């Protein structure tokens, strides 16, 4: 039986035979509650206190006796047909009453095509970028949305479908989407000066050479990619007018001790503190932020939003009832990314 919401808790069940020794719920550690299911006959059961979330992504960790030895595997819920692809593989998903996928996923959308490019700059390896543009716009000057972790954003959060639908509806003008590939993600997306300059200088020039750019460039990303989007925006690149960050990894020692063993923690923390300590922006940006109210990055995102506003940036932010995952980021694109892009680009009529 799939999980079921019962008043103040969610009931999880797993049907196991005599060989099953234990069953545990595998889900985001920030979700409160026990993880061990309790056996009742042939069924293992857990009452998880209802979290303040619209969805729960999960698996079961099942230990069985096999040939007088114990074997453990993590599996999807065999009784739940609902699942989602994530950056870390498939997960079963429990959706709370009232949850709905974004309407733009099924809305009419303009057709478009993809062109692979390579951005050569200061990084040891070139930065691959795949550019999406609406059909019939080749060579036209259009606004540009530059997306870090671009291929995953497209595969798991449908970012080019979002753009295609918003162009079709007239909510946004025709524009291009540059999907930046994270070849050396940890090294590049942790405040690397060489990577940041490659994107903001030679990278934007190469993209403009491929197709003229009109209006302010908007840079976006999530997690480490969101940190990187903001750091790119902070450089002295007049072409960049906006930043959109989802669950940015704005690590600070006072909030993020659990991340302190990460190789690039200190570099990230220094860059974050520099931004927080900036009293006044020399080049104010339009900045949008979203994050999950329960996720580990919530506190550092609240600090960053407040600091950016104090410095004079035009900031909007929202906390969503989800966690640190691509479905949460997809679901928050509308209206929050739409608002940032419309403020900078206008709609189809300008």
From TrEMBL:
Entry's transmembrane regions: none
What the entry lists under SUPFAM superfamilies is as follows:
alpha/beta-Hydrolases (SSF53474)
Show the InterPro entries listed in the entry. Answer: AB_hydrolase_fold, Esterase-like, Mycobacterial_A85_antigen
Pfam families in the cross-refs: Esterase
Q: What is this protein called?
A: Ferric enterobactin esterase
**Which organism's genome codes for this protein?**
Knoellia locipacati
């Amino acid at each position: 039986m799939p999980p079921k919401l019962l008043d103040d808790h969610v009931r999880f069940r797993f049907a196991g035979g005599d060989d099953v020794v234990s069953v545990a719920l595998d889900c985001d550690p920030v979700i409160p509650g026990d993880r061990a299911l309790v056996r009742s006959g042939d069924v293992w059961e857990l009452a998880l206190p209802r979290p303040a979330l619209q969805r729960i992504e999960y698996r079961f960790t099942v230990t069985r006796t096999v040939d007088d030895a114990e074997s453990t595997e993590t599996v999807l819920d065999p009784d739940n047909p609902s699942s989602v692809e994530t950056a870390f593989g498939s997960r079963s998903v429990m959706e709370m009453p009232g949850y709905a996928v974004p309407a733009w996923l099924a809305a009419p959308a303009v057709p478009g095509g993809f062109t692979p490019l390579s951005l050569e700059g200061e990084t040891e390896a070139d930065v691959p970028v795949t550019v999406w543009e609406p059909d019939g716009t080749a060579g036209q000057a259009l606004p540009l949305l530059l997306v870090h972790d671009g291929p995953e954003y497209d595969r798991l959060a449908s970012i080019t479908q979002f753009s295609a639908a918003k162009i079709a509806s007239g909510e946004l003008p025709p524009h291009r989407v540059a999907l930046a590939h994270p070849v050396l993600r940890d090294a590049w997306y942790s405040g690397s000066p060489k990577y940041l300059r490659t994107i903001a200088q030679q990278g934007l020039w190469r993209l403009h050479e491929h197709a003229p750019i009109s209006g302010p460039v908007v840079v976006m990303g999530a997690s480490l990619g969101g940190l990187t989007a903001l750091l790119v925006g902070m450089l002295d690149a007049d072409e960049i007018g906006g930043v959109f960050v989802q669950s940015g990894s704005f690590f600070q020692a006072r909030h993020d001790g659990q991340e302190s063993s990460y190789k690039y923690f200190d570099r990230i923390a220094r860059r974050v503190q520099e931004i927080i300590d900036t009293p006044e922006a020399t080049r104010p940006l339009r900045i949008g932020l979203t994050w999950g109210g329960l996720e580990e990055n919530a506190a550092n995102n609240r600090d960053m939003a407040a600091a950016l506003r104090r410095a004079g940036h035009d900031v909007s932010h929202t906390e969503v009832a989800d966690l640190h995952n691509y479905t949460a980021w997809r679901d928050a694109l509308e209206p929050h990314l739409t608002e940032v892009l419309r403020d900078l680009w206008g709609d189809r009529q300008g």
